[in-house]
Each structure stands twice: as structure tokens, then as C-alpha cells.
Design brief:
The structure is a single chain. With 396 residues, the chain is an alpha+beta fold. The chain folds into 3 domains: 2-35; 58-181, GAF domain (Beta-Lactamase, 2-Layer Sandwich), CATH 3.30.450.40; 218-388, 2-Layer Sandwich (Heat Shock Protein 90). The protein has helices spanning 2-35, 39-55, 64-78, 104-114, 161-217, 222-239, 249-267, 292-303, 336-343, 352-365, and strands spanning 82-86, 91-96, 118-120, 136-144, 147-156, 246-248, 271-277, 285-287, 310-319, 322-329, 372-375, 381-388. It is elongated, with a radius of gyration of 33 Å. The model is unreliable at 1-23, 25-34 and 127-133 (pLDDT under 50).
Length: 396
């Protein structure tokens, strides 16, 4: 009897404890759920998350692969039967259970031409004899600047005012993503154009002088002439390569070494070069042709303008999260006011290579990462650039 009472009490205690644990866990879960905010807050977070997922696939603009992947997320945002994305010429994405109407691009063309959102009803979506109930579609234009570059379409049994507004908002959001993609593309094209400008700057001046220097050794020192021809070929092959916007400090310094070898053939003992390179920065990724123009500036506008000796010092060392490269010459220097005008793009001067490199560094790494230039007339020039060592998005 006593044992039975004890067992009963024990079971009761276990039941009470279990209820307390479950209640406590339920309280914590409910509190955690409430911490996410109201129903409206949670709906907002879900919408933003879905939009973020879709944006990843539109980084390259309106492409078939990107539009196809983004359409799955955008259809969940609109909660429509089927979602359509087109460019100006074709259907890029079709996500949902409906069959693609044969006349789809004819309807899309009306929106592309008018630039206005339009609703198309049953018979317009297929054969003229289609019966009611086939569904409706609202098609909204995707605009970049003042151009209509595509459309977003949402299918439903019945298109109401809410779906029209939602389709317009989604089309506007896609427009923003396409504009950002075009801006990125424009920046890339600008960088490529600037590199081509640097190549053009190298070619007439440097090539003419190098060939003259090589020619001067053909009769007096044929072996030296052959060596210089090989260095000249390697230098031009690197400078005019057609792939990659980035290189490494090591590759850029190797090209600079060839450049200086050719210039020393012309200047002889007048040109002195000192190198202080930390091996830990050699693998750092840098924009292609970002160091060579600075060294060429030191030679052309430092040494050529004087009759005496010229000394160029190139240093590269570890500076924490950055690789710091400095190019210094003891030449004639630059008037600071004139230099500021050149860097601002107000003057087309002989130092245009400095502005080109400065702009590209700012475009790639931000406004705080342009060239630092210390100079004065008669005091030489020291140019410093700081490049982040970690650049996972940039490949050589």
C-alpha cells in the first residue's frame, strides 16, 4: 500500500515536471516567434529575402539563364499562376503550369511599343475561339532610362487591381536590377577603354625609342641587340595582351624590368634604378597596367627633362591588409596645381597616364584608394598606391 502511494506520487511528479518542461519550451518558442515581429513584419522580411534571392540571378542583366532562375522567386512574390519575363525579342523565362501561348510575343510587342502596362483577356491569349476561363495576363514594361528593354507578365484566372499594381512594382524592381547590370558593364567597358588608352600611350613613344636603341647595337654589339629584341617582344606581348583586367605585382614588376632594360639601353649610365620588393606582396592582385605607366612617367617626365643622372626607386612592402607600392624619382617634379588639374580631368597634359591609373584604382577599390602623389617643381615625384591584399572577386 505504501509502495503504491509512492509510485503514484512519483508518476504524478513526473507528469507535472513534463508539463512544466513542455510549457517552458512552448513559451520560449512563442517568444522567439514574437521576436520576429508582427505578421506584417514577417511578411516584409520574407518579401525582402525573396527579392534578394532573385537579384542574384539578374546581376548580368536580362539573360535567359538569369531570368529563368529569377522568375521562380518573382512568381512567388506575385503569387500568380505563371510568370513571364521577356527582352525585346524573345521570351526569356516562363515559370508556371500554363502552356506558352503561340501569340505571346505579339502581345508583348504591344507593351514594348506603347511602354504601358496592359491586360490581355481570354481570347487574346490563344486561338480566337478560346472559351472564357482560360485566364488573363497583365504585362508591365521593364525600363532602363527611357528605353523599354523587356517585360514582366503575370497570369491569373482573373487580373485584379492588386495584381496590376504588384506586377508594375516587380517590373520596376527588375528595371533597377537591369540598370545596375548595365552600369557594371559600362564600368567594365570604361576600364577596358582606359587600358587601351594606356597601350596607345605606350606604343608611339616607347616603341620608337626602343627600336632606335636596338638598331644602335646591331653593328656594334649584335648579342646585345638580340637580347633587347627578345625583351622588347616580351614587353609588348604583356602590354598588349587581350585577356584579363587584373594581374599580379610580380607580373607587373617583371614587365617593368623589361621596360627599364630597354630604357637603360637608351640612357646608359644616366638611368639608375633601385628595387626594394617584399616577397610577401608579389602575389597581390592589381589592375593590369597600373604600375608600368607610373614608372614610365618617372622616366619620361623625370629623367628625359634633365641632362644629368636620374634615379628611380621602386619599393613594395606589406602594410597590414594592404600591399603598398611606391615609385619615386629625383627628376624635375610637377607643379601641384597643374597636377590637381590633370587628375581632375580638366587638363589634357603629358601626365594623362597618372590620371588614368588613379581613376581605375578608384573605380575598383573606392574613392579612398587613388594615387597619393608628393611632388613639387625641382623636387622630384613620389607616387604611392595601396592595394588590398584580399580580393576574392578579382581573378588574373
Amino acid at each position: 500500500m505504501f509502495s503504491t502511494a509512492v509510485d503514484t506520487a512519483l508518476v504524478g511528479a513526473i507528469v507535472v515536471l513534463t508539463i512544466a518542461v513542455v510549457a517552458g519550451l512552448g513559451f520560449k518558442l512563442s517568444r522567439s516567434y514574437r521576436d520576429l515581429g508582427s505578421d506584417a513584419d514577417r511578411a516584409t522580411y520574407a518579401t525582402l529575402h525573396t527579392a534578394a534571392l532573385a537579384s542574384e540571378h539578374l546581376r548580368a542583366g536580362l539573360t535567359p539563364a538569369g531570368a529563368s532562375k529569377a522568375s521562380k522567386h518573382l512568381r512567388s512574390l506575385l503569387r500568380c499562376d505563371t510568370l513571364l519575363i521577356t527582352d525585346e525579342n524573345a521570351v526569356l523565362a516562363w515559370d508556371g503550369g500554363r502552356e506558352l501561348p503561340a501569340q505571346m510575343m505579339e502581345l508583348v510587342q504591344q507593351v514594348l511599343t506603347s511602354g504601358r502596362t496592359q491586360i490581355f483577356r481570354e481570347a487574346q491569349l490563344g486561338d480566337p475561339g478560346a472559351v472564357p476561363g482560360n485566364g488573363q495576363v497583365v504585362i508591365s514594361p521593364i525600363r532602363v532610362d527611357k528605353r523599354v528593354v523587356g517585360t514582366v507578365g503575370a497570369f491569373a484566372p482573373y487580373v485584379n487591381a492588386g495584381l496590376v499594381r504588384a506586377a508594375n512594382e516587380v517590373a520596376g524592381w527588375v528595371s533597377t536590377q537591369v540598370e545596375l547590370a548595365e552600369l557594371d558593364s559600362s564600368r567594365t567597358l570604361l576600364m577596358e577603354a582606359e587600358v587601351r588608352a594606356l597601350r596607345a600611350q605606350i606604343s608611339p613613344h616607347f616603341i620608337y625609342n626602343s627600336l632606335n636603341a636596338i638598331a644602335s647595337f646591331i653593328n656594334t654589339d649584335p648579342a646585345r641587340a638580340r637580347e633587347l629584341v627578345v625583351e622588347f617582344a616580351d614587353f609588348t606581348r604583356y602590354s598588349f595582351r587581350r585577356h584579363g583586367d587584373f594581374t599580379t605585382v610580380a607580373e607587373e614588376l617583371k614587365s617593368i624590368d623589361r621596360y627599364l632594360l630597354l630604357e637603360r639601353a637608351r640612357f646608359g649610365e644616366r638611368l639608375k634604378v633601385s628595387l626594394e620588393i617584399g616577397p610577401e606582396v608579389l602575389s597581390t592582385v592589381i589592375p593590369f597596367l597600373s604600375l608600368q605607366p607610373l614608372v614610365e612617367n618617372a622616366v619620361r617626365h623625370g629623367l628625359e627633362s634633365t641632362d644629368g643622372m636620374g634615379h628611380i626607386t621602386i619599393t613594395a612592402h606589406d602594410a597590414g591588409a594592404f600591399a603598398e607600392v611606391t615609385i619615386e624619382d629625383d627628376g624635375v617634379g610637377i607643379d601641384p596645381d597643374y597636377l590637381r588639374s590633370v587628375l581632375a580631368g580638366h587638363t589634357d597634359g603629358v601626365h594623362v597616364g597618372l590620371r588614368n591609373v588613379d581613376q581605375r584604382l578608384r573605380q575598383v577599390y573606392g574613392e579612398d584608394h587613388g594615387l597619393t602623389i608628393d611632388t613639387a617643381v625641382g623636387a622630384g615625384t613620389m607616387i604611392t598606391l595601396r592595394i588590398p591584399k584580399s580580393q576574392p572577386d578579382h581573378q588574373t
